[in-house]
Amino acid sequence: MSSSFVVACVGKPSAGKSSFLNAVTDAAAKVGNFPFTTIEPNQGIAYYPLECPCSKHGVSKQCKPRYGWCKNGRRFVPIRLLDVAGLVPGASEGRGLGNRFLDDLRQADVLIHVVDASGTTDDNGREAKGYDPVGDIQWLRSEIEAWVFGNIERRWPGVVRRHKATKSLAVDTLHAQLAGYGTTRDIVQRAMDTVVRLQLIEARDDISQWSTEDLRRFVGVFLDQRFPTIVALNKIDMPDADKNIAAILKRYRRQPNVVLRDGVSEENIVLTSALSECFLRRMVKQRFIEYTTGDDDFKSLDDDPALTELRELDDKARRRLDNIRDLVLFRYGSTGVQEVIVRAVEAVGFVPVYPVKSVVNFGASSTDSSSAAFQDCVLVRPGTTVREFARKMHNQLDVNFAGAETVGNLQLAEDDVIVAGKNNIIKITTTAQ
Ligand SMILES: Nc1nc2c(ncn2[C@@H]2O[C@H](COP(=O)(O)OP(=O)(O)O)[C@@H](O)[C@H]2O)c(=O)[nH]1
Ligand SMILES: [Mg+2]
Predict the structure, then answer these.
(1) Ligand 1: which of 14, 88, 238, 242 to mutate, most ligand atoms within 8 Å of CB?
(2) How far separated are the first and last CA of the chain, in Å rounded?
(3) Fewest C-beta in 10 Å: which of 54, 141, 329, 430?
(4) Where does the record place the OBG-type G domain (predicted)?
């Protein structure tokens, strides 16, 4: 059983993807401290922080996550990150790593688009001056759109013919066409609902009447649902970044009742300095500073001579740390990298679910109350029901499903939707016990 949540980091060369991955993945984590069977070279594990139910239920001492960790009721749940390198303009026509890049995207639940906000790299990742990073956001979206739209447009006349012959529902026909992009029917349904709500297509769900432009519009709305995108506006420590940031935030200000521009909205833009975070982490590891990812400051011996476990800084490190403090932490409140992970999980609305053997001691055993509590936390898509969760956990739990209950021995119906804080601590009973 594992959380299959996948976040893909994309962006032009030199935007800072690898630095971002280094900044959020925990190299010091114990090998195997994640529920994924294989980790490819271009993957990393990041941790999504959430409030663990152990403190509310008074079992913090017994809380022993099998993967990730829990400290003072703050739990860190592993998620998988992909470094999708090699995207250059023209990828949808096969330039650069083209189709391989796009194939990687199929696995992703969310995209993190790392954008160089400093304007010092051009669209091919070469050094430049005064490059406008707004172009990067538009370009990435148009590559993905060209890829999906191109594929579906080619088949469209045949699709419409079959659709008419079989009298299928529009959503089912579209789902069949889009399933190859790792798409659930639910996502297609949401896209269709949006089309109808915002009156984007006159023929609505009568797809046999759709023009090419209608189809293109639908693909756009579909992509917004299928690939929620967090923009990490990176390199905020550099000189021209602030004016570029202001322009981008203005351009993507949220407008009610219109489709997203380039699939991006202001609330999904996070300012980051991946390089600063990498440096701060290194300083922590070498015991020069005290700092926790997400914090708005660090402490060195200079700040507090009582921190005798820390080592004395040299001038070079001191200058660099001063810079990070002035240009990043004081100005923007953090290096931003942790916030990107949080927004990525929240963009899909993932629900944490805690499968337990006992809803009294929350342990892995119903009889031994000294056993570890809340060992597992699985992130599931919004709308997941109790029975779907059982199936996701283990085939046998589904086959032998006899019932489920939550805290207070409340019985759950199998089609109850799982909601955080309400019924997401679940004991499943089977007939074969
Ligand atoms: N100033 C600054 N430089 C950065 C930042 N993030 C990455 N870089 C630098 O940008 C260059 C490209 O970074 P890299 O992570 O290799 O980019 P990738 O090609 O997208 O994987 C490297 O020289 C990094 O040190 C940042 O936040 N600030
Ligand atoms: Mg790289």
Answers:
(1) 14
(2) 19
(3) 430
(4) 5-292
